[in-house]
Design a protein that fits this description.
Layout: E1 5-9, H1 34-52, H2 56-69, H3 75-89, H4 94-104, H5 112-128, H6 132-145, H7 151-165, H8 169-176, E2 191-194, E3 198-204, E4 216-223, E5 228-236, E6 242-251, E7 260-263, E8 268-277, E9 283-294, E10 298-302, E11 312-314, E12 318-324, E13 336-346, H9 349-361, E14 381-393, E15 399-408, E16 416-418, E17 423-430, E18 439-448, H10 459-488, H11 492-508, H12 510-516, H13 518-534, H14 538-551, H15 558-572, H16 575-587, H17 594-610, H18 614-634, H19 641-654, H20 658-671, H21 678-691, H22 695-708, H23 715-729
Parallel strand pairs: 2-9, 6-7, 11-18, 15-16
Antiparallel strand pairs: 1-3, 3-6, 4-5, 4-8, 5-6, 8-9, 10-12, 12-15, 13-14, 13-17, 14-15, 17-18
Helix pairs in contact: 1-2, 1-3, 2-3, 3-4, 4-5, 5-6, 5-7, 6-7, 7-8, 10-11, 10-13, 11-13, 12-13, 13-14, 14-15, 15-16, 16-17, 17-18, 18-19, 19-20, 19-21, 20-21, 21-22, 22-23
Length: about 725
C-alpha cells in the first residue's frame, strides 16, 4: 500500500500581505510614462507613511489621489488594493472594498500576482457579507484563471467555509480536502497553529477504502508541555481516501484526556498516526507531523476596564497598555512581556521645509511635481523620547497589561512624560506569528488635557468624541456578529444575550450620533436595524430601515435596507408587498443585490403557489418560473444563477417535460457546482432519467446523491429507489 500522507491545516481567516512591487512594463500608448509611474509610486509610499503614523484618513485620501492623478499608471492598481484592504479589514465596508478589488482585478492590470490577490479578496468580500453564491462564483474563477497561484488554496478554503455556513457539509468537506499541501515524510517544514484556534488534521491513505462505514481513524496529539489527547478522524469524500479530524487548542496547564489541547507559548504539538500498510510492505509504521504553536500579537491603548480602545490619552491620568500574544504565556505563573512606549511631536512647517530641502539636496527626493506633493513624503512626526516597559500577564492567559502614569513636561528618564498635542505610541515586536519574519504591532493615542468625560466642544475635541462613538459602534457590530455565530449553531439564549448587549451599546450612542449626523448616524441606523432583524423584532427593524431610506436616500445601504424590509414582509406573509420591494431592488441600476431581488421574487411566487388551490398554483408557478428565468437572462453576475437554473429544471419536471429537464440538470451540474439544492437536483435528475427509460444512468445519479449528500433528508428515499433498481436488474433465480 502507498505511504499515508499526513498534513495539518489551521483553518483560520487568512492574514494576507499585499505585494508591493509591480513588475516594470514597457511603455505603451495606453499607459502613462515612467515619470508618471515614479510620481505615482512616491505618492503611494506617502500614503503608506501616513498609515504607519496612524493618520488613516489622510492615507486613504493620498491613495485615492494616486488613482485620480495617474489613471494610466499601473501603480493605480496597488492604490486600489491599499484602499480595499483598509475598507475590508479595518472598516468592514465590504461593498466599498469589493469595488476597489474589482478595479484591481481587471485585465488591464499587467501583474497577475496582484490580479489573483484582487480576485480572491473580491470573493472574500462576498463571503464576509454572507453572499455565498457570489463568493463561490468568484472563488471558482480564481481556481480556473490562476491555477498556479497561492490564492487557489484560499479559494478552496472559502468555498468550503461558505458551504459549511449553509449546512452543505459534504460539499464543504470536498472543498476543504483540497486546502493545503499534503506533506510527505521527507518534508521537514513545521506547520503553525494559533493558540486558541482549532487544529484541523487531514490524512490521505488508500488503506481507508477498506474501512467499514462509520469507522474512525485514531490520531494522537501530544504537546511538548505535557498534554496528550486522542482525536478521532472521520472518513470523507469519495472512495474514503481522506480522513479529517480536529481539536480545540487553549492556553493553559495540560490536562491530558479532557478533549482540549492545552498549550503554552512556543509549544510544539506532535501529531502521530499509525500507518498499518505502507508501499514497501511494512506494517504499523508511525507517521508524525510537528506543529508550532504561535500567537498573533495585538497592541492596544485602552480604557481602565480594557474593554474599549482609546484614541486620546489624558495628561495626569494612567495610560493603560495591553498586548495580547500567546507566545509569551510560558509558565503557569504571570509571565512578562517587553515593549516600548514612544512619544512623538509634530514637526513644524519650518522643520518639514528644512527636511525637504536637505533630502532634495542629497538626492533622496526629486523636485516636486507641479501640484506640489513632496510634503506628503515627509513623516509629520518626530520622536521625542522612548520608555521601555514590562507588561505583566493578567488573569487571562496570553494577555499582558500595564498602567503607566502619563505626566506633563519632560521629567525624568524612567517615567512617561508628554505635552498636549503630542502622540504616544505603544510598540511591540512580534517575532513569531502565523506569517513569516517579525512584525511591529502598534497602538497610539493623542495626548490631551482635561478629562475624557468632560470634554469641551471645540473642533479638536469633537473629533475625539466622534472617534469614541465609532469605537462603540464597532463594538456593537462585533457583538452582533458574535450573536449571529451563536444563532447559526442553535445557541439561541447566548445569541439573544449578545444581541441585547449590542442593542444597549447602539441605542446608547443614538442621541450623540444624531448630533454628529452624517456617516456616523447613517451607520448607526444600519447597525440598529441589523440588530432588530436578528432579534426578530420585525416592527422595529422595518421602522429603522425606513428611517434610513428617508434620511439617507442616497445611502449605499439603501438596497440592503430594502432587502431586509422585503424579508420582513415575506416572513409576515405579505407577499404582494414583499414582491414589490424585491422587484424594486432588481431595478436599481447600481445595486449588487439586483439578482438577489429577482430570485426572491420567484421564491415568493413559489411559496404562494404551495399555499394556493390547484388552479391558482399553476398560474403562480408559471410566474415563479419566469422570475427565475429573468435571473438567468438578466443578471449573469449574480451568485443566484445556479439556484435559478435549478428551480427552472424542477419546473420542467413538474410539467413532465423530462427531456428538457434533463438538459437543464446537466447544465447545472456542469457549470454550477456550488448551487444550492444539488441533492434535490440529483434526485429529480434521476427520476427524469428513469421516466425516459434510462435506468442505469438514473441509478448513477441516485448513487451520487447518496455518496455526496449522505446528510440530505432525501438520501434515504434515494437509497430505497437504488435498492429497487438493483432488485429489478437482478437475474431471476433458476427454477
Amino acid at each position: 500500500m502507498p505511504y499515508a500522507v499526513l498534513s495539518l491545516l489551521a483553518f483560520l481567516p487568512v492574514a494576507t500581505l499585499l505585494p508591493v512591487a509591480v513588475a516594470q512594463q514597457p511603455a505603451a500608448a495606453e499607459r502613462g510614462s515612467i515619470v508618471e509611474d515614479r510620481a505615482a509610486r512616491k505618492l503611494l509610499q506617502a500614503g503608506d507613511a501616513r498609515l504607519e503614523v496612524g493618520e488613516n484618513e489622510k492615507a486613504l485620501e493620498i491613495w485615492k489621489s494616486v488613482i485620480e492623478r495617474y489613471p494610466r499608471s499601473p501603480v493605480r492598481f496597488e492604490a486600489h488594493l491599499r484602499l480595499a484592504d483598509h475598507l475590508l479589514k479595518e472598516l468592514r465596508q465590504f461593498d466599498k472594498a469589493r469595488a476597489h478589488y474589482q478595479a484591481a482585478a481587471r485585465e488591464t492590470n499587467p501583474d497577475d500576482k496582484l490580479r489573483a490577490y484582487a480576485f480572491l479578496n473580491t470573493g472574500t468580500c462576498y463571503y464576509e457579507a454572507g453572499r455565498y453564491g457570489n463568493c463561490f462564483k468568484i472563488m471558482r474563477q480564481v481556481i480556473e484563471n490562476f491555477p498556479a497561484s497561492s490564492e487557489v488554496n484560499e479559494a478552496y478554503y472559502y468555498i468550503g467555509l461558505g458551504h459549511f455556513k449553509q449546512g452543505h457539509y459534504s460539499r464543504a468537506i470536498e472543498a476543504l480536502e483540497k486546502v493545503g499541501t499534503a506533506l510527505s515524510d521527507n518534508d521537514a517544514r513545521i506547520e503553525k497553529v494559533e493558540a486558541g484556534k482549532r487544529l484541523f488534521i487531514k490524512i490521505d491513505d488508500r488503506d481507508f477504502a477498506i474501512l467499514e462505514p462509520g469507522e474512525q481513524v485514531e490520531v494522537i496529539c501530544q504537546t511538548k508541555t505535557g498534554d496528550r489527547e486522542k482525536v478521532l478522524c472521520d472518513t470523507v469524500g469519495r472512495n474514503a481516501k481522506i480522513t479529517l479530524g480536529s481539536i480545540v487548542t487553549q492556553l493553559g496547564s495540560p490536562e491530558p484526556g479532557n478533549g482540549i489541547l492545552e498549550v503554552r507559548g512556543g509549544d510544539l504539538i506532535t501529531v502521530t498516526y499509525l500507518d498499518r500498510h505502507t508501499t514497501d510492505k511494512g506494517t504499523n509504521e508511525q507517521r508524525l507531523k510537528e506543529v508550532l504553536v504561535v500567537g498573533n500579537g495585538i497592541a492596544r491603548i485602552a480604557d481602565g476596564t480594557y474593554q474599549h480602545d482609546l484614541q486620546a490619552a489624558v495628561l495626569g491620568k494612567r495610560l493603560h497598555l495591553q498586548v495580547s500574544d500567546a507566545d509569551h504565556d510560558l509558565t503557569p505563573q504571570a509571565d512578562r512581556l517587553a515593549a516600548t512606549v514612544h512619544v512623538y511631536s509634530r514637526k513644524t512647517a519650518d522643520e518639514i521645509d528644512e527636511e525637504i530641502a536637505e533630502r532634495v539636496a542629497n538626492g533622496e527626493l526629486e523636485e516636486a511635481p507641479e501640484d506640489g506633493t513632496l510634503k506628503d513624503l515627509i513623516d509629520p512626526l518626530k520622536l521625542v523620547r522612548s520608555l521601555p516597559v514590562q507588561l505583566r500577564e493578567s488573569a487571562e492567559n496570553g494577555v499582558f497589561r500595564l498602567a503607566v502614569p502619563l505626566q506633563p513636561g519632560s521629567g525624568v528618564a524612567d517615567a512617561l512624560h508628554a505635552d498636549p498635542g503630542q502622540v504616544v505610541r505603544l510598540v511591540y515586536l512580534d517575532k513569531r506569528h502565523l506569517g513569516e519574519d517579525s512584525l511591529t504591532r502598534t497602538a497610539e493615542a493623542r495626548v490631551i488635557e482635561g478629562n475624557l468625560g468632560e470634554m469641551r466642544v471645540t473642533r479638536t475635541e469633537i473629533s475625539d468624541e466622534e472617534l469614541q462613538l465609532k469605537t462603540r459602534l464597532r463594538t456593537a457590530t462585533a457583538l452582533t456578529q458574535v450573536g449571529n455565530h451563536y444563532k447559526e449553531f442553535g445557541l439561541k439564549e447566548k445569541a439573544d444575550l449578545k444581541y441585547g448587549e449590542a442593542l444597549i451599546v447602539c441605542e446608547g450612542i443614538l442621541e450623540e450620533a444624531r448630533k454628529a449626523g452624517g456617516k456616523l448616524l447613517e451607520e448607526t441606523y444600519v447597525q440598529l436595524w441589523r440588530i432588530y432583524f436578528a432579534m426578530d423584532e420585525l416592527n422595529l427593524a422595518l421602522a429603522m430601515s425606513r428611517r434610513l431610506q428617508t434620511e439617507f436616500p442616497t445611502s449605499a445601504f439603501v438596497d440592503e435596507a430594502m432587502l431586509q424590509q422585503a424579508h420582513v414582509e415575506r416572513k409576515r406573509g405579505n407577499f404582494s408587498r414583499a414582491i414589490g420591494l424585491y422587484s424594486s431592488i432588481a431595478k436599481l441600476p447600481n445595486s449588487s443585490l439586483r439578482g438577489e431581488g429577482q430570485f426572491f421574487v420567484g421564491e415568493c411566487y413559489e411559496e404562494m403557489a404551495l399555499k394556493s388551490t390547484a388552479e391558482q398554483a399553476s398560474r403562480l408557478f408559471e410566474k415563479a418560473f419566469l422570475a427565475y428565468q429573468a435571473v438567468y437572462e438578466n443578471f449573469p453576475e449574480s451568485g443566484r444563477i445556479g439556484d435559478a437554473v435549478a428551480k427552472m429544471a424542477a419546473f420542467y419536471y413538474q410539467k413532465e417535460d423530462y427531456a428538457r429537464a434533463v438538459d437543464v440538470f446537466e447544465n447545472v451540474l456542469a457549470d454550477y457546482p456550488d448551487a444550492n439544492f444539488l441533492d434535490v437536483i440529483l434526485f429529480n435528475y434521476g427520476r427524469c432519467l428513469y421516466k425516459l427509460g434510462r435506468r442505469q444512468e438514473a441509478r448513477r445519479r441516485f448513487d451520487q446523491l447518496i455518496n455526496d449528500f449522505p446528510e440530505s433528508e432525501i438520501a434515504p428515499e434515494a437509497k430505497k429507489i437504488v435498492d429497487a433498481l438493483k432488485k429489478a436488474a437482478a437475474p431471476a433465480p433458476a427454477e
